[in-house]
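lol ok so funny story. i was supposed to be doing the assay writeup but got distracted and ended up predicting the structure for this chain instead. priorities right. anyway since i did it might as well share w the group, maybe its usefull for someone
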Amino acid sequence: MKFTSSYWIEKLDLEKHPEGGYFKEVYRSDEFLDKENLPARFNGKRCIATSIYFLLNNDNISCFHRIKSDETWHFYYGNAVSIYIIDNKGNLLKVSLGNNPEKGEVLQFTVPKNCWFAASISYENKETDFGYCLVGCTVAPGFDFEDFEMAERHILIKKFPQHENIIVSHTY
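and the output, tada:
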């Protein structure tokens, strides 16, 4: 059976995410790390880890953003997804998250903390096009919107002009 994006949005009770796509938090640890046990970049205590379901369809992208923690992406279903990472030295890395290692896809990838990253669906195989991807994202220390920063297109282009095309296509 070929499930639709609407099926997953309804079945998993997903809602719109500010960066694009749809999400549902499925885990937030009930244990915390106090501020004094965390790196200085955190303003207060954080739960040890969080995880979400995340769905992108062919109508949306995950816009460039960054967070203060590492974020591991796990592939579940649908099309492969391209994750674009700009590190603090200005290097651009493209990772294909999917279930076909013969095409260089990986099932799991961790985006390093404080790197700008964005994502969109890969359409390399029209015969198996689902029109969406369903992934999971795990963050440690746990995600807090206080640690989330959405990129402003003009500022990111000014900082990384060599990546203007990908920045323009993955920001609003």
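Helices lie at 5-11, 153-159, 164-169. The chain has three helices and 13 strands.
back to the writeup now i swear
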